[in-house]
Design goal:
alpha/beta; six-stranded antiparallel β-sheet; FAD/NAD(P)-binding domain; single chain; five-stranded parallel β-sheet; Elongation Factor Tu (Ef-tu), domain 3; 451 residues
Length: 451
């Protein structure tokens, strides 16, 4: 009997998740990754599962979309979640991690598993590489920053045109360079009992009306990085650059990442606006600027971000950047199990399928791997209920009329019906989310028995 084997191209979150899923189910894996030899413009580490944009895996709240997705992934033995919790840093009700420790641990597991062969290699033609290594199936999990040769192959053989979006990365500041006399720790939603020795997870830089208006003015007129090759700047609505938000109106940032609600200072006063900072590591030696992904040039970032109170002498561990991402229009080119319509043995997983976010990407790795495992078991592909988080993501990318990457949210799930008293409640939005999450967990638990 021939050895069952899968080629996975790309050791990001989706590729790592899929590789370890196959390995623990007795399937041999050839995992190729080229970043150690030829990293793309956004990569800083040489290890697997690098978190490029932020160190947050989003909310743990069970009544949130991300909480729902984590519930399902945990039931499927997600390594990303397991390692994420083991390398967590304080972040309120969100799961944020130490990027280096997170990446190092997943890399260690990949490298040490007897069923995984980790090869430093840039794949140009996935079908040729699959034949070269004697693999039954192939998963392309190269993420939104697919290298140009493979991207060209995908465009010529699978996707055609309309294969990109732009994304931006937030800067990280050195804690020692901040003036903490102008900053304070406080979480917007998580109450902290200081008498019990508890400490807030977020550092805040409050702004007056004058400081905010001057900051917005500079953001709008600052020099930005132009799009590559005169392409249209197509961004994700869920991850817009802070300077783009500022251009939408002077009050936009006060109602998004600089929202002051819940961040009163020690004297009980509400700031006009507030910049939040989250720890990059447990030591708290560096902070990232929450929601401050940007397309500003490096020179302008340093100049303008030093306008933030407490940042007057700030030094940055790394600055923000803009990069071109690659995404398929899944509805046109993939089957619902994420296999290619043109090449049945070729699958895609992760953000390249049209989802946006770390846990979303990892969940697509689990999904594709489970569908291939069913093929090895001579079983048909299995459709997931749209009431579940993973099922809703699959349904979205397979029905979207145009490629528009989305993160998990309750708008992707079928609506729930409220009773008359619930519809009248001022908390009806919260109730709807709770009911949708409860229904999703119940449907998923029943569906899990079929897998």
């Amino acid at each position: 009997m021939n050895e069952q084997k899968v080629l996975i191209i790309g050791a990001g979150l989706a590729g790592s998740e899929a590789a370890l899923f196959f390995a623990r189910n007795g399937i041999k894996v050839v995992l190729t990754e080229c970043k150690a030899k030829a990293p793309n413009e956004a990569q800083k580490l040489k290890t697997a599962a690098e978190l490029v944009c932020t160190n947050s895996l989003k909310s743990l709240n069970p009544a949130s979309g991300h909480g729902l997705l984590k519930y399902e992934m945990e039931a499927l033995a997600s390594v990303v979640l397991e390692v994420g919790k083991a390398t967590a840093v304080p972040a309120g009700d969100a799961l944020a991690v130490d990027r280096d420790n997170f990446s190092n641990e997943i890399h260690r597991r990949l490298k040490n598993h007897p069923n995984i062969e980790l090869i430093e290699e840039e794949v140009v033609d996935p079908l040729q590489s699959g034949a070269k290594y004697g693999c039954d199936f192939i998963i392309i999990a190269t993420g939104p920053l697919t290298k140009k040769p493979l991207e060209t192959w995908i465009q010529e053989n699978v996707s055609g045109d309309d294969f990109y979006f732009y994304d931006a990365i937030a800067p990280v500041v050195d804690a020692d360079s901040l003036d903490f006399s102008k900053l304070y720790f406080k979480d917007r939603y998580k109450p902290v009992n200081e008498e019990e020795g508890e400490k807030a997870d977020y550092l805040n830089a409050p702004m007056t009306k004058a400081e905010y208006e001057a900051f917005i003015e500079e953001l709008c007129k600052a020099e930005k990085v132009p799009p590559q090759n005169f392409e249209e700047l197509k961004y994700f609505e869920a991850c817009l650059p802070v300077d783009t938000l500022a251009e939408r109106g002077p009050e936009t940032l006060r109602f998004s990442c600089m929202k002051p609600v819940g961040l009163e200072t020690s004297d009980g006063k509400m700031p006009y606006a507030c910049v939040q900072l989250r720890k990059e590591n447990l030591k708290g030696s560096a902070f990232n600027l929450v929601g401050f992904q940007t397309r500003l040039t490096y020179k302008e970032q340093v100049r303008i971000f030093k306008m933030i109170p407490g940042f007057e002498n700030a030094t940055f561990n790394h600055l923000g950047s803009v990069h071109r991402n690659s995404f398929l229009h899944a509805k046109k080119v993939l089957n619902f199990d994420l296999s290619s319509k043109e090449f049945p043995k070729l699958y895609f997983a992760g953000q390249i399928t049209g989802v946006e976010g770390y846990t979303e990407s990892a969940s697509m790795g689990l999904y594709a791997a489970m569908q291939i495992l069913r093929k090895f078991q001579d079983k048909d592909p299995l459709k997931w209920p749209v009431e579940t988080g993973i099922g809703a993501l699959i349904n979205y990318i397979m029905t979207a009329s145009k490629a528009s990457p989305s993160s998990i949210n309750f708008g992707l799930l079928p609506p729930v019906q409220l009773e008359k008293s619930q519809r009248r409640s001022k908390d009806r939005k919260k109730i709807k989310k709770q009911l949708a999450a409860q229904r999703a967990r119940e449907v998923f638990d029943e569906f899990l028995k079929l897998i």
